[in-house]
Please model this.
Amino acid sequence: MPGTKKLFLKGNEAIALAAINAGCRYYFGYPITPQNDIPEYMARHLPEVGGEFLQAESEIASINMLLGAAATGARVMTSSSGPGISLMQEGFSYFAGNELPALVVNMSRQGPGLGGISATQGDYNQAVKGGGHGDYHLIVLAPHTGQELYDLTIKGFELADKYRCLTMILGDAVLGQIKEPIDPWKPADSGCDPTRDWLITGAAGREPRLIKSLYLADGEMEDHNWHLQEKYARMAAEDVLVETRDTEDARLLLVAFGTMARVAKTAIAAAREKGLKVGLVRPISLFPFPVEAIRAASAVAGKILVGEMNTGQMVDDVRLAAVPGVPVEFYGRPGGAVSTPEEILQRIETAYSAVS
Amino acid sequence: MKQVVHRPASLTDKVFHFCPGCHHGIVHRLVAEALDHFGVRERTIGVASVGCSVFLYDYFAVDVIEAPHGRAPAVATGTKRVLDDRIVFTYQGDGDLAAIGTAEIIHAANRGENITVIFVNNSIYGMTGGQMAPTTLLGQRSTTSPYGRDRLRDGYPIKMAEMLAALEGPSLVARVAVDRPANVRKARRVIRRAFEMQVEGKGFSFVEVLSACPTNWGLSPREANKRVADEMIPYFPLGVMKEKDVVDVL
Model:
């Protein structure tokens, strides 16, 4: 649905506006760079639409405020980065166990420790492998432009509602700070169906309800875990998001997400101009992971180069997805650096010369 | 014959799993009586915490959400901010509220969240099997203070009601006990007052209930009640530490 006119917004602001347009009326969070534009935008604009912004005493408190608010069925979100996301991991695990929907934005910053505040993809494993205790996943969406930040925020709320789970938008400082034109379209549906049979609203005229994650009786815990696993399998069957480009004739397949994919697109265009047949698979949903797209493209290309802004995390998932025998090379720089198109082009040329 | 005592409608008919002489059953009943009194059962949301009382969802006939350890005041904050016409209460033990959840209780109190917190202080970790709590008395033995709590090593038992009463935010802060009938009657009045505060939109109410844990204290129920009177109440004095009627919150 196209909007009337485009707005020139920072990525962080695009997320906040998208959330409000998606019907999010409650935000709980704690300041941390490089995502402060999100709470600041929410603090200013949520009251205008009858919503509420609350600054928590810590990220631990904010994720738990989110838990209590999500249980009522309201569309709710928080955002953080690096150390703050680490503090929220206990809460993420409870969201999974309690099966509650909400959106969390991770504008990741470099680690380990206090690290640095510029762009990185060092939180890939933490985001897609669960992060907290227990056998669970979040839906993880990785935008690579301002408009995609906007669109995936809305999509993220919808998926969280569909599966009663937490959706994470995984970005970085580049995506959060870059200003781009945004089409501020509004979804038709704000998603908050008040008749859902699990909402904690007070037991008026019905049996009391319970939202919990404690299962002590024989077999209950295993049953609950199998139920969660069925949900993750359904996500993989129905809601993988991926962009594939120039894979039909590719001799070399590049796999990258987020900011790295954006830089890689420039490098691939330059490679194509030089006559190198290079394709791209850009996972948009990091969980569920686009296994089939990578398998199919790897069968054509015969060689894969994975680019990440870390020292090799998604590359493990690409190796598992690729057709057996297809060599998978890795190129990455750890937190503290963003690769240039020239650097990636050079790696493409090196990898390509080996297949030619 | 006229029935003069009955189970509160806010309690289910499930038999308590609590140990003989445990005070949770009494405190559950007092909370349920308050909910009945104000006729709010159908618009009440309980937040269960981690510890023996996590199973309150089996006993209270209200909607319940289970919070992570120590986080009940934050969870309750989120629920109350969305549903501000509902009655939201947390029910927490001393490990949950006074150790791991210290930040959450202080800031919920300081914000004057319009919720009610029932804090059951039995000076020990019950569910995990008798470890030292932040409220364990000096010299008291537990499985992790087998030679007795030592002030130089472990610090002093923490007085939560006094701490919270020092904040501007709370509207009612009190400490009660349920070791004997006279104290139960006082506790009933204070807990009712705490929920009245919330019903009237007057802000944060906090009731600390000194409580017995005969199993982990290694005492009989009768001896445990005596210990509450002889050892706990002198260190944790009963009374209303703070009460204000000014509506300056939410």
In short: The radius of gyration of chain A is 21 Å. Chain A has a mean pLDDT of 96. The first strand of chain A starts at residue 7 and ends at 10. Chain A has 13 helices and 15 strands.
